[in-house]
Amino acid sequence: MKGTLYLVPSPIGNIDDVSPRAKQTLLNVDFVACEDTRNTLKLLNILGISKKCVSCHEHNESVASNSIISNILDGQNVAYLSDAGYPCISDPGYILAKKAIESGITVVPISGASAFLNALVGSGLDTKHFLFYGFLESKSSLRVKELEELKHLTYTLIFYEAPHRLDECIKDIYKVFGNRNVCLCRELTKIHEEFIRTNLKDLIDNPPTLKGEIVIIVDKGVEVIKEEISDKEIIAKVNDLINNGLSKKDAIISVSILLNIPKNTIKKLVI
Questions:
Q1: What total of structural domains would you count in the chain?
Q2: Which of 77, 109, 141 is the last residue of a domain?
Q3: Dist. CA 57–CA 52, nearest whole Å
Q4: The whole model's pTM is what?
Q5: Can you tell me the distance from the alpha carbon of 88 to that of 97, in angstroms, rounded to the nearest whole number?
Q6: pLDDT tens by residue, the chain, 271 residues
Q7: What ranges in the chain are assigned the alpha helix state H?
Q8: DSSP character for 48?
Q9: Among residues 109, 131, 161, which one ends one of the domains?
Q10: Which CATH number covers residue 104?
Q11: Which among 145, 146, 219, 230 has most CB atoms closer than 10 A?
């Protein structure tokens, strides 16, 4: 008989966030797989639980998950914990959970702490519709490209960021999004929990010095209504540019940027 894989959230700061159900799950499983055995052993010691811990992190998850799955198929029950938060949410665990499901194993998520949900509900920004994005690219040019794809979404946007990249990240968000309301959330569930509710321009003018992982909540964008344009009008715009001296290739690229229409779509119309 197959065992079960339990996805168990670990506290993001306050140890009291470990629920009775999570504790009971950790007591009952045969062993614990985790992102960092040192951190998980500390947590288990605080809870008075003695369990074998095996490592399964972002660098070895593809390989380590195979042996864990094998143990579960042999009938063992396993709990998986990532560090400070929910497995699979900007943390390892997805590969393990996916392989377990593909192997016909029951996967049971245990409710618990999640930094982005705490940040969202405490931000004061719209919670009706939101998009959790996680970490943006660390390189500015790639980050700007990501943000360009998100700027017209009419959802509250949620990002994670490291403190040493925060200033540059905020500048890129401002450059792409313009000035929007924002909330920086840090030290969530801890003694020095802080919500900085302001706007992007103020953050750039008065950059805060923060420690610890930051959750950035950015107000939703304004819906952009695209004007309908016919194929004949698209072709006419391309021909106008060609008549004014541009090559056909450059004219197609220019109209693609101007109308926000895929280049290949315009190319097929013109050809």
A1: 3
A2: 109
A3: 16
A4: 0.78
A5: 8
A6: 999 999 999 999 999 999 999 999 999 999 999 999 999 999 999 999 999 999 999 999 999 999 999 999 999 999 999 999 999 999 999 999 999 999 999 999 999 989 999 999 999 999 999 999 999 999 999 999 999 999 889 999 999 999 999 999 999 999 999 999 999 999 999 999 999 999 999 999 999 888 888 999 999 986 544 556 788 888 888 888 888 778 888 888 878 877 778 888 888 887 7
A7: 20-28, 37-47, 61-73, 94-102, 115-123, 140-150, 166-177, 200-205, 231-243, 248-259, 263-270
A8: T
A9: 109
A10: 3.40.1010.10
A11: 219
The distance in angstroms from the start CA to the end CA of the chain is 62
CATH code (residue 190): 3.30.950.10
Containing structural domain, residue 258: 231-270
Both 104 and 123 in one domain: the answer is no
Tokens of residue 39, six digits: 């951190």
Report the SS3 class of residue 51. coil
Both 29 and 44 in one domain: the answer is yes
Quickly list DSSP for 124-161.
-S--SSEEEEEEPPSSHHHHHHHHHHHTT--SEEEEEE
Among residues 224, 223, 216, 213, the alpha carbon closest in space to that of 200 is found at: 216
**C-alpha triplet 246, 250, 255: angle, nearest 5°:** 100
Same domain, 60 and 89: yes
Closest CA to 35 of 7, 14, 16, 13: 7
Claim to verify: residue 42 and residue 125 sit in the same structural domain: no
> Looking at the structure, do residues 182 and 197 belong to the same domain, yes or no?
yes
Answer yes or no: do 259 and 213 share one domain: no
Q: Which class for 251: exposed (0-12), middle (13-18), buried (19 or more C-beta within 10 A)? A: buried
